[in-house]
Inverse folding.
């Protein structure tokens, strides 16, 4: 099968969508399929064409500044000129224009993976959202199948974007289960708290920092990520005189990230908007428990594994601190069967959807 993945970003960019596309693309290529990833490059430093792990990467220069609704007009030109190059096309991220371009060129063989949160994550994104929505709905109507990562995302996609539920499939994001469980813990002074993800307002990392003032002084918070809120969070840490209890890190490679998961007692995830809690799944797979906001899809996950994830209705720093203490006092590390989230299973399920669409097209 000739498969084209379309993603606003791809390696060496780091992020949830980038990780998902790379994990599935490389597995399908290893299984004998011809796989290309078409992506945008905002740096002008990466090669236009590159092969990595049997996957051909085509990069198109993105000249529009900002990090929401990337345009990629040069990609549109390429897609229109290469309509017959792919048997199936999987376009990712409702919040970027390449999915719209894919719907123009490949509607009869398009699978859309929305990664839809229901809102933007900045003032700029929220201003663009209502303007873009008619185009986004049109693009999803043209797709043969729409993949959502959770029941929560599926409900949003059906309600906001008017996609019929029978045209959607739920395929969660995956994890590298073997690597997570085999990672060696770091030699950290306990108790260690961890945050992993982008540093943006909607992630509410400020609550994790503020909770330290209500925790014993031996608690430390390790923050892995970068984003627009980084300076504000550093300033908050200084103002609260917590410099010796908060550590900021960025660009942590996966093998080291997995060691952090294996070392922390509690992952703190108070985000207001997620389509799928990938970092929470990774943490739990490594034996780390999670305290989170009482919002879907966290609550959806908590129903399945209540021994590992603890949603909070009250998101005040004091309540968060109390919950952290309770979790940190629980015996041993958590053990949960998460084999259905392994990347091999996720890749096989994605391939099944591709084959179904391709079969329907040939009839």
């Amino acid at each position: 099968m000739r498969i084209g993945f379309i993603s606003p970003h791809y390696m060496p960019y780091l992020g949830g969508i980038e990780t998902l596309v790379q994990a599935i693309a490389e597995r399908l290529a290893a299984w004998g399929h011809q796989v290309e990833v078409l992506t945008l490059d905002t740096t002008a430093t990466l090669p236009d064409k590159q092969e990595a792990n049997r996957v051909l990467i085509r990069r198109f220069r993105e000249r529009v500044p900002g990090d929401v609704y990337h345009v990629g007009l040069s990609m549109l030109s390429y897609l229109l000129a290469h309509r017959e190059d792919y048997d199936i096309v999987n376009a990712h991220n409702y919040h970027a224009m390449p999915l719209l371009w894919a719907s123009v060129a490949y509607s009869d063989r398009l699978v859309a993976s929305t990664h839809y949160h229901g809102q933007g994550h900045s003032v700029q994104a929220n201003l663009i959202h209502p303007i873009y929505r008619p185009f986004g709905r049109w693009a999803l109507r043209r797709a043969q199948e729409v993949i959502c990562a959770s029941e929560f995302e599926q409900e949003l996609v059906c309600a906001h974007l008017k996609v019929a539920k029978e045209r959607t499939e739920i395929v969660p994001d995956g994890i590298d289960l073997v690597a997570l469980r085999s990672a060696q813990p770091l030699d950290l002074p306990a108790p260690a708290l961890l945050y992993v993800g982008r540093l943006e307002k909607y992630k509410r990392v400020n609550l994790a920092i503020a909770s330290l003032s209500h925790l014993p002084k031996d608690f430390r918070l390790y923050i892995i990520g970068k984003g627009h809120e980084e300076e504000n969070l550093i300033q908050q840490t200084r103002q609260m005189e917590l410099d010796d209890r908060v550590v900021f890190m960025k660009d942590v490679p996966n093998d080291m990230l997995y060691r952090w998961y294996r070392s922390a007692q509690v992952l703190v995830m108070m985000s207001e908007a997620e389509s799928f809690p990938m970092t929470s799944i990774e943490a739990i797979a490594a034996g780390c428990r999670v305290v989170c906001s009482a919002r879907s899809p966290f609550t959806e996950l908590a129903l399945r594994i209540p021994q590992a994830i603890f949603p909070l209705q009250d998101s005040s720093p004091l309540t968060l601190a109390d919950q952290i203490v309770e979790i940190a006092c629980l015996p041993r590390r958590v053990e949960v069967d998460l084999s259905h989230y392994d990347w091999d299973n996720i890749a096989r399920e994605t391939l099944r959807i591709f084959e179904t669409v391709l079969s329907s097209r040939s009839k």
In short: Residues 177-340 form a domain with the Rossmann fold fold (CATH 3.40.50.2000). The chain has a mean pLDDT of 92. Residues 42 and 63 are 7 Å apart (CA to CA).
